[in-house]
Amino acid sequence: MRIFFMLLPWLELATLIQLGAETSVLTALLYVFATLVLGLLVLQRQGVGMFQHLREAQSGRVITGRLLLDDMAVGFAGLLLMVPGLITDVAALVVLIGPLRRRIARFFAGPQPEPYAPRRDGGEHNTIEGSYRRLDD
């Protein structure tokens, strides 16, 4: 994995050179500029959405882990779009697709524990009524 991250800039450069050779240099430059602008727009939109979720949480609504995961993943996709190259753009598109993003998150996170729900006793309940007095006062 470490080798992949060390080779990623070179692989990105190779893909951009190949794109420029297949189409034109101007097309490759426009592609890089367009994905940069798209990444900035995604980050801006996601930032506004995160602040709205935080305001809702302050008013008493609880933020779930899934909501935070989605917010952070879409922000990460915006950052990936800003990196010039085709490999990170494909990774960003994978992250932007909601069901695919959740499936990948489940794969890396493993099975989620079931929430605790106390079991109710189905038997007959007896209520004992009475009064009490503390002896240590």
Automatic annotation (TrEMBL):
Keyword terms, alphabetized: Membrane, Transmembrane, Transmembrane helix
InterPro entries, A to Z: FxsA
Transmembrane segments: 21-43, 73-97
Disordered, as annotated region: 115-137
Gene Ontology annotations for the cellular component aspect, listed alphabetically: membrane
Composition bias type Basic and acidic residues, residue spans: 117-137
Name of the protein: FxsA family protein
